[in-house]
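User: My collaborator sent over this chain with a note saying "see what the structure looks like." That's all I know about it. Can you take a look?
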Amino acid sequence: MQTVPTPVTSWEAVTVTADRDAGWLALGKHEYWPPQNTAWLKMSDVSLLDTLKWSVGGISSLAMMFGGVVPYIPQYLEIRRTENTEGFSLYVCLVLLVANTLRILFWFGHWFELPLLFQSVIMNVAMMMLISLCVSIRKRGQLIHSKEHVFTDFDYDYFWEWTDMQSYVEFMLTFSTMGCLLMYLFIDSAVFVETAGFISVLTEALLAVPQFYKNFITKSTFGMSRQMVLMWLVGDTFKTVYFWVRSSPLQFFVCGCLQIAIDILVLGQCFIYRKKNSHLIN
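Assistant: Without extra context I'll predict from the sequence alone. Here is the result:
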């Protein structure tokens, strides 16, 4: 074969033929030989394209799995360095723990991509580590020993303000057990399963609301890591695009857009309260 036919841009029905001796792969709309209106690719090029596609997909999946916890690394290091937890709302951890636990349960009723499932598991582990750091620092910062508040007190006034790490673990175990039981009983109900999925992504979409509210009350973002919020925005944008490209459940994409909007509002607070932040730093 001396020459390569001019590639075409569209086919009505694609068939695949090959000339092994010449090492060319033909993609055309005619099944007879010689093919007409045929696009020709070198077989080695096809393998390269497949490898490139697989590599990009693998990198995207890894970014999806571990990228979610990256924004909390600066906040973790900031809290550990300053030994001050006042600027960070622990309710952010609560939102993420509930959202990702519900997403894990949703997977059993409506399978979606495994990277999203693994992301939820990794995020839960990271949030428990962040909570453990905050609880230990609060204990060391107490000048006067006060009454401890634990989960088994069932005191609404101190919900998620417990003084020991065990209480947070007990709450998540209780929540997860109840969720597993309900999913087992109603797994055949499409309405229940889809509602659980929607609540999961909606809860995650409201992730930044506790931080927004805390900033609004104190009229300051002092102690909050701006790098964390910027990474929220970048990560949520990537995640939303990922949902769209990979045709994930519609709930994921819609709530991803909502999450981006709230991230922008929190970043706006950094600009609005910049004068008070400077005063506190001084």
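A starting point for your reply to your collaborator: Confidence is low (pLDDT under 50) at residues 6-41.
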